[in-house]
Amino acid sequence: MIYINCPLCGGDDSTLVVRENGYHIVACDICGMVYLNPRPDDSCLQAYYQKSLPFDEKSIVAWQNLTWGVVKRAIQTLDRLKPAKGKLLDIGCRYGSFLDLAKKHGWDTVGIDICSQAVSYDRWKGLNVGTKDLVDRSFADNGFDAVTMFYVLERMPDPMQCLKQIQRILAPGGVLLIRTPETTPIVKFFKVMNLFRPLYEAPGHLNDFSPRTLKSMLEKAGFQDVKCMIGGFTLPYQPVRRVISWSSGCLAETLYLISAGRLLLPGVSKTTIAFKPRGDHG
């Protein structure tokens, strides 16, 4: 186990949010960033992620159905922002669902994933997927017009370093689209109600972002024009969870629309877009 300072501001003072699966999830006393501390080292996390992704047909179909509304909205957003299309990198591409859709929409797609089984599966499907690491500078500067990450940044040991590398490989004016959960508001509500649910999936989620902390991190990494939106919602297979997700998702979308994008319902997953400055040539 290793102790870290706040991934956003570097502060070392924090307050416990909750204990989950033997781990401490804390909030930085300076900037409010929520993160797991202490945490397993990189080798333990690598082994954990290799085992955490099921590859039976039922699980693959369930994930595709769960996330379809989110990925559909995401490709619509990218097509609107980048009508000329171009080269797209999906980080943590999992079963390749978004890559499939982006390819059909005319994007030149590349995917990476740390799970070797995911890479083998996606290559079997005919997708251009590998295990390259952003941090070791495997990708050239300014090489992509768009980068996407769906439910990945919260799992990154060093999210700031990850975002800086994405900023490097994006072409000037390129767009980053991130999908992240926002778990802490729900956890705090359950805590008041004296309820407990392992919503952080510790040690799976190392970070939990609010719109404010994610915007701050993106700007520190060199991005501009950061915008957070609801961006659709997932639909789980289980009836009760499906009803909860549908009702909270519809409420979040409605509040977002009637407030002209100013009201973001806490506790629901969100999509964030950000741009590399056009004058930045790496």
How would you characterize this protein structure?
- The chain has a single domain, classed as Rossmann fold (3-Layer(aba) Sandwich), CATH 3.40.50.150.
- Helices cover 36% and strands 21% of the residues.
- It has helices at residues 42-51, 57-81, 97-104, 116-124, 159-169, 184-192, 211-220, 239-258; strands at residues 14-20, 23-28, 34-36, 87-91, 108-112, 129-130, 144-150, 170-180, 207-208, 224-229, 270-275.
- The strands form two sheets. The chain has a seven-stranded mixed β-sheet with strand order 6-5-4-7-8-11-10, with helices on both faces. It has a four-stranded antiparallel β-sheet with strand order 1-2-3-9, with helices on one face.
- The longest helix has 25 residues, at 57-81.
- The radius of gyration is 18 Å and the shape is globular.
β-strand percent reads 15-25%
Oligomer: single chain
Q: Can you tell me the CATH architecture?
A: 3-Layer(aba) Sandwich
The secondary structure category is alpha/beta
The radius of gyration is 18 Å
Strand order of the largest sheet: 6-5-4-7-8-11-10
What is the helical fraction, as a range of percent?
A: 25-40%
Count of alpha/pi helices: 8
Question: What would CATH call the homologous superfamily?
Answer: Vaccinia Virus protein VP39
Low-pLDDT parts are none
Kindly report the average pLDDT value: 92
| CATH topology assignment | Rossmann fold
Care to count the β-strands?
11
| CATH C-level | Alpha Beta
Order of helices and strands: EEEHHEHEHEEHEHEHEHE
When the domains are counted, the total is 1
Largest sheet: 7 strands, mixed
Quote the distance from N terminus to C terminus: 35 Å
Shape: globular
